[in-house]
Specification:
This protein is mainly alpha-helical. About 70% of the residues lie in helices and about 0% in strands. The protein has helices spanning about 15-30, 35-69.
Length: about 70
């Protein structure tokens, strides 16, 4: 495997999600080659931002509950 190259194994049960994602990328760009990896990274960034915001909110709520006691 080359530096910067990565392979991901997708379970059979998640294959429909992967195919939906690829279909949306194909509809957006008219191709997969050269753009699929970029779109995967964008999706991961959005997921991380969402989870980090949710985690921050939950920690803040927990801290506020602790102070109120």
């Amino acid at each position: 495997m080359k530096t910067g190259e990565m392979h991901v194994r997708i379970s059979e049960s998640d294959m429909k999600v992967w195919e939906r994602f690829k279909r949306l990328v194909l509809e957006k760009y008219g191709k997969l080659h050269g753009v699929l990896g970029d779109e995967v990274i964008e999706a991961l960034k959005m997921y991380l931002e969402h989870e980090e915001a949710r985690t921050h909110k939950e920690k803040g709520e927990w801290s506020q509950r602790r102070v109120k006691r």
